[in-house]
User: Fold this.
Amino acid sequence: IGDKVYRIYSNVNNRRKTKIVRGTLAQAKRELKALQVEMGDPKYVDSSTSPAVRDALDRFLKVQKERMLNPKENLGEGEYDNKERHARQFCTVKIDGITVGEMKVSRITEALCEGIIKDLSLTRKNKTVSKLVTNIHMAFDFFVRKQFCQLNPLAGIKISTKGEDKPHRAITFEEIDKLLAHSEEKYRLLIDFCAHTGMRFGEQAALEWSDIDFDEEVVHVRRAIKKGKSKRIGDPKTKAGERCISLPDHLIPLLKKWKLQQPLKQRKNNLVFPAIDGGFAKSDDWRETGVKKACLKAEIEEMTFKDLRNFYASVLIFSSDFNDATTTEFIGHSEISFTKKHYARWFADKKRDTEIKKKLNLAFRR
Assistant:
């Protein structure tokens, strides 16, 4: 009836209801379906047969768990745990004194979802809420297929994460030297190893002595601890994660010395960097007690264990001895395009610095 203004109406059992919608045509169509559900149109879901959100999410999670246990499905335990946590968080939000989990699936509207998201955003970053919305959106797609509801109320909801993604911190060689000088002895080698191999935490924590070839001076990345409560061992994060990395000269004698001195109780699983009892190390321990504590002592800006991997990547990117393909291979990415996107600012700086150097050489040529 005007520019981005629509009149929608529904006729059910000789009852007619009209509503004015301001927005896009897609929004008007969603509002029309919502109105038809509200009016009890027999073509749409009967709310009396629609399960509670909590019960419906339990059915969704059961299917997801079956996917996780199926080796042919590409669903990791960590991803499943995220879905389970997000379902719990979504259900515990209260609207007018009633938890979302108690509400009928068919009564969850787009407007109601906007209120739920607003509540969740009070104590969480938009990036975190966006991941939750993605998983709950997937759940409601499942509900639509099961005819628990007619349409997905999250279909038109987008969460902006602009400004929340921090660029990778550029760490200098001097900072690495200070970090190692102030780290506790039991963490020093594993920190040094990560900074000079770029291995992910899960890959390094699962590393066995048989993966290190001292003759060829290389380390083979063959497995990783998978994210999730069980801490099971599986393949690296991607197919490209299975790789061979050259070891810097200074690491060889340090690793040989550690292999000889490693306490007997830590050798039971043949791990290079085990926990005190010989089991798999915890990322929190390496990050908090190992890296962050050393940063505090060294009086340098705080860094995470992942920042050590980024340091390794930055050295490859800025070195003229490595092309883009080799850098991607050593970091363990599947595609050069992903590496360039992930470290976009560094690649841009590399190109800029090269161009500046050429111009300076021309300017000072005699």
